[in-house]
Specification:
By secondary structure, the protein is mainly beta. Strands 11, 13, 14, 15 and 17 form a 5-stranded antiparallel beta sheet that branches. Strands 20, 22, 23, 24 and 26 form a 5-stranded antiparallel beta sheet that branches. The protein has a 4-stranded antiparallel beta sheet with strand order 7-5-9-10, with no helix packed on it. It is built from no helices and 39 strands. It is 0% helix and 48% strand.
Length: 502
C-alpha cells in the first residue's frame, strides 16, 4: 500500500496520522546531524472505512470497535462510525459547496467509550450502508473495527467478515472471479470532501482484460460504490487479479466474493508486491485450497511453495514451485494441503526475486455444505496487531514464524459488557505455524478483542478465524493481522527548540 509521508520541518517534530499509518522523512541536514534515534509515538488520528455489508434482506451484521491501551496518548479524544452517505454539512453529491443539498448527520452506528474495552453496533437487511470512521487522541493508536455478517441462505450464505481499512491509493486483489457461479463486487468508499477518481484493472490467465469502463469511476464525496466485476468485461474467468488504482483522492477498497453453492466472504487487499510472501492460517480441516498469484512487473516469477506446519517447513507433493508469468494471473490447486494440521503458506523466490501479490481461496465442507473464505498475503505483525469481535463463535488464532523462533504475548481484552483481561505467552518455533485457542477474559460478558505483541525473535505473521456452524454448514471467515498502525517512528532533535532565542 502507499504510505502517507510526513515531513519534519526546521527540527520541529510534527505528528499526524491521517490514514492510520505514517512514514516520516528525516529533516534536511544543513550541518551537523541533528537527529537522534527515532522514537515511537502514538498516532494522533485514524480513519477507517467499512464496506456496505450485504445485498441480502436476511443479512445480520455486527460491528466491533477496539482501541488498545497505548502509553503516551493524549487524555482525550473520540471515535465514531457513521453512514458513508451522510455528507458533511457543506458538501453536495458532486463535491461542490452549496446550501440546498445539505444532509443532516444521523446517529453514529458505533461510538466507543474507552480504550481497552470493545464497543459494538449492528445493522440488518440489504440497505445497510458503508461506514466512514474517524478516531483521534487516545482512541487513534491501533483502532480496529471488524464487520461480521451472517447470511442464512442464498448466494454468499454463511459467515462473512472483514477488517475495516484505512483509505489508500492502491489495492491488489488476487483471487477475484467472473465465473458463472461467482458474483464479485469491488466496494470503493470515499471518505473525503472531494470526489475520487478510480481505475479498476483486471488481469486474467492471458494478461490484461479490456474493460468496458476505460475512463475509470468517479466516487462522490462521503459515498460508497459497489462495482460488479462481470459488468466490466464479457470474459468469464475463474481466477482474476483486480488492481484498484486511485487517480485522484483516496479510497477504501474490498472485494465481496459470493458463490452460488460455496458461500462467500470478503477478499481483503493483499500485501504490497514482494519477492517473498506469507499467507497465514489455513484451517486444519480445509478440503480445498487454491493459490492465486500475480506479478505486476516485467519479469516472470518463479516461487518455491512451502507449508509452515506445526513440525516445520514442508514442500507440498506435486506443488513444489509455481511459475508466474509477467502480467498474467496464475493459479494452483493445493487440495487439502494441511491434512488435518495447522498450516500457513510461505512463498520464496527460487532464484531472482520478483515482486508478487498472492491470495488463497479456502473451502471447508463438502458438497452442498461447502463454505469459502480468503487469505491474502499479509505484512508481519511488527510491534502489535489487533483483532476485534471474538465472542459467540469459535475463535482460532494462527501464528507463524517463518524464519526464526519467536516469543509472542497475546492479550484478551476486557469484554464489552464486563470481564478482566487475560495475557498468555507462546513460543512459535522457527518455520512453524501454531493454532491456538485464543485466551478468553475471566468473567467475560459480551465480545472481546485480542492483541498480539512479539516479545523476541524473528518476524511473526498472524491471522484470526471465526467459525459458526448453522444448519450443518461450517460457516467461517479469516482475517489476517498485520501491524495495527498504532505507533509512528519520529526522529528526535538534539536540541530543545520549543523556546526561541531572542
Amino acid at each position: 500500500m502507499n504510505r502517507t509521508t510526513l515531513s519534519l520541518i526546521a527540527g520541529t517534530t510534527a505528528l499526524a496520522a491521517v490514514t492510520a499509518f505514517a512514514a516520516l522523512d528525516s529533516p534536511s541536514a544543513s550541518g551537523a546531524d541533528t537527529a537522534k534515534a527515532a522514537a515511537e509515538l502514538p498516532v494522533e488520528r485514524t480513519s477507517l472505512l467499512c464496506p456496505a455489508p450485504s445485498l441480502s434482506d436476511i443479512a445480520d451484521t455486527s460491528y466491533t470497535s477496539f482501541t488498545p491501551v497505548t502509553k503516551g496518548t493524549a487524555g482525550d479524544g473520540k471515535a465514531e462510525l457513521r453512514a458513508a452517505t451522510e455528507q458533511s454539512a457543506d458538501d453536495t453529491s458532486d463535491g461542490t459547496k452549496g446550501k440546498d443539498t445539505k444532509k443532516k448527520a444521523g446517529k453514529p452506528v458505533l461510538t466507543p467509550k474507552e480504550p481497552g474495552t470493545p464497543a459494538t453496533g449492528d445493522t440488518s437487511g440489504a440497505d445497510a450502508p458503508a461506514l466512514v470512521g474517524t478516531a483521534d487522541g487516545k482512541f487513534a493508536p491501533g483502532w480496529t473495527v471488524q464487520e461480521t455478517t451472517e447470511v442464512a441462505a442464498g448466494t454468499g450464505r454463511g459467515l462473512q467478515g472483514v477488517n475495516c481499512t484505512a483509505p489508500d491509493t492502491e489495492f491488489w486483489f488476487p483471487g477475484a472471479s467472473t465465473s458463472t457461479d461467482r458474483t464479485d463486487y469491488v466496494h470503493v468508499t470515499n471518505p473525503d470532501d472531494a470526489a475520487a477518481v478510480v481505475d479498476i484493472e483486471l488481469y486474467g490467465k492471458d494478461g490484461t482484460i479490456k474493460s468496458t469502463v476505460p475512463d475509470g469511476f468517479t466516487v462522490p464525496p462521503h459515498t460508497s460504490k459497489p462495482i460488479l466485476l462481470s459488468t466490466l468485461t464479457d470474459e468469464r474467468q475463474t481466477d482474476l487479479t483486480v488492481h484498484v488504482n486511485v487517480r485522484s483522492g483516496r479510497v477504501g477498497a474490498a472485494v465481496q466474493a459470493l458463490d452460488d453453492k460455496a458461500g462467500g466472504d470478503w477478499l481483503a487487499a493483499a500485501a504490497d508486491p514482494a519477492g517473498s510472501l506469507v499467507l497465514p492460517g489455513i484451517p486444519k480441516d480445509a478440503t480445498d485450497v487454491r493459490l492465486i498469484a500475480f506479478t505486476p512487473g516485467d519479469a516472470d516469477a518463479d516461487l518455491k511453495i512451502r507449508l509452515a506446519s506445526p513440525d516445520g517447513l514442508i514442500t507440498p507433493a506435486g506443488n513444489e514451485t509455481l511459475h508466474v508469468k509477467s502480467g498474467m494471473t496464475t493459479a494452483a490447486d493445493l487440495g487439502d494441503v494441511t491434512r488435518g494440521e495447522a498450516g500457513s503458506l510461505v512463498l520464496t523466490p527460487t532464484d531472482q526475486s520478483v515482486p508478487v501479490v498472492a491470495a488463497l481461496r479456502v473451502v471447508r465442507g463438502k458438497g452442498a455444505k461447502q463454505e469459502t473464505a480468503f487469505i491474502p498475503a499479509t505484512a508481519p505483525v511488527g510491534t502489535r496487531a489487533t483483532s476485534a469481535d471474538n465472542s459467540g463463535r469459535t475463535t482460532t488464532l494462527s501464528l507463524t514464524a517463518p524464519t526464526a523462533t519467536t516469543t509472542v504475548k497475546v492479550t484478551a481484552s476486557a469484554g464489552s459488557e464486563g470481564g478482566t483481561p487475560v495475557t498468555k505467552t507462546y513460543t512459535i518455533k522457527s518455520g512453524t505455524t501454531q493454532d491456538i485457542s485464543a485466551p478468553v477474559p475471566s468473567g467475560l460478558k459480551g465480545t472481546y478483542a485480542l492483541t498480539v505483541e512479539p516479545v523476541s525473535g524473528g518476524p511473526l505473521y498472524a491471522s484470526r478465524a471465526l467459525a459458526a456452524t448453522e444448519s450443518g454448514i461450517p460457516g467461517f471467515t479469516i482475517q489476517t493481522l498485520p501491524n495495527d498502525r498504532g505507533l509512528v517512528s519520529v526522529p528526535q532533535a538534539d536540541e530543545d527548540l520549543s523556546v526561541l532565542q531572542k
